[in-house]
Amino acid sequence: MSSRAATRVFQGVEEQIATGQLKDGEKLDEASLAERFHVSRTPVREALLQLVGSGLATQIPKRGCFVKAPSFREMIEMFEVMSELEGMCARLAARRISDEQLATLKAANKGCEEAIQANDSDLYYHKNVEFHECIYTACGNSFLASETRSLRRRLQSFRRLQLRVRGRMPQSFNEHDEIIESIEAGDADKADLVSRQHVMIQGERFNDLLAHMEQPQ
Amino acid sequence: MSSRAATRVFQGVEEQIATGQLKDGEKLDEASLAERFHVSRTPVREALLQLVGSGLATQIPKRGCFVKAPSFREMIEMFEVMSELEGMCARLAARRISDEQLATLKAANKGCEEAIQANDSDLYYHKNVEFHECIYTACGNSFLASETRSLRRRLQSFRRLQLRVRGRMPQSFNEHDEIIESIEAGDADKADLVSRQHVMIQGERFNDLLAHMEQPQ
DNA sequence: GTAGAAATTATCGTATACAAAAATAAGATG
DNA sequence: CATCTTATTTTTGTATACGATAATTTCTAC
Questions:
Q1: How many angstroms is C1' of D5 away from CA of B103?
Q2: Which residues of A touch B78 (CB under 8 A)?
Q3: Predicted ipTM?
Q4: CA B38 to CA B5: how far, in whole Å?
Q5: Which of A31, A74, A127, B195 could connect to A112 by a Cys-Cys bridge, CB 3.0–4.6 Å?
Q6: Residue that terminates a domain, selected from A48, A67, A86
């Protein structure tokens, strides 16, 4: 089906960690995974290496790999950094965005609006990613864009949960408006501030959500 | 000698990329590397995967791995992000640092001073790392600390060059004083600003250095 | 002589095999 | 019965083997 077995295993394990099927500290046994994915140990080992690289697993020499789900504290820390990066992207975008990029950004936001009117949170999720992607591109720093994207991806599975929180979708959309306005006005400081808050609010929502769901560690 | 063959290969190739023995775009042939490091292809492939993960190589499916030395533009971009992260660390440290951590920070700076008096740029390099490491720890966000450390490491080989630039060592040290003062005073905004500048100046110095050395691409 | 096609070669991705180290189980000794 | 020692088993890390795909070369046709 897919091109590389190693990639399949990587994404599969990643998914299972995100959904909680594989829990924190659980051992990632090479032989079992190989059997589960119908491949040999070689691609499994490659997948595990990549998991370790992306921080989802820990490797102890001669002992094996173990799931390393972010703790509550680490999640908050990641949101804190995400907030900073997102703010930086917006700040730079306010200074560097082109007319064309601004138009694309507005179009993406229009997509968000339509998703809200259709009350389609899954569509909103994708349109929202698109919106932020526009800002990453417009910041004119592809390294920053890539780092931010990567962190967003890492917080992704939790975000998806958040947008279903009551009333979050319209509020998120209103914040988008503020972000666009400040970027269009070239107000870097405000774009920075508003974007930071946009992320931190999500962090807080995440916090609420977790508190409702179960005990953090 | 060492524990893992894969690690040896990884560090070896990393070193050769940093020193310029392996140039941008050059192919990382599995068989040749295996022969060079007296190991089989398996650990070589693992090393290459890690190199790709840390951004030092690119992988094209069914075509192989190629050295991906950061371009001039990417270096500037990385400095821009480093500046932001370093600023964030300092800002948080100004709010969260403990008395004990502050003492350690001052001690590290004392080490820098001694290195200057001894005119030992190599020692200064290490003491400087120690100084910044204190701030990372004091920022109270271990994820941020880890990300910043990782980026520092990536810019490391170039930094090492920079500190040998004429007059940089004392200037860097003076900037440290400003950083300590603002952190001690709990002035988060100033700590942020000064730390950002501290990095950006290095970026500019790097810029100068490159301009002197050879043509950027 | 050049362009395209077929065959050959090289290299990647995966599977299997084997050696070394660690975990576990079994046995001996007090 | 507990504990230390030793044997067995499991599992990691590395080497080798094999199939598939892309690159290269050779060959043929024009």
A1: 51
A2: 143
A3: 0.84
A4: 9
A5: A127
A6: A67
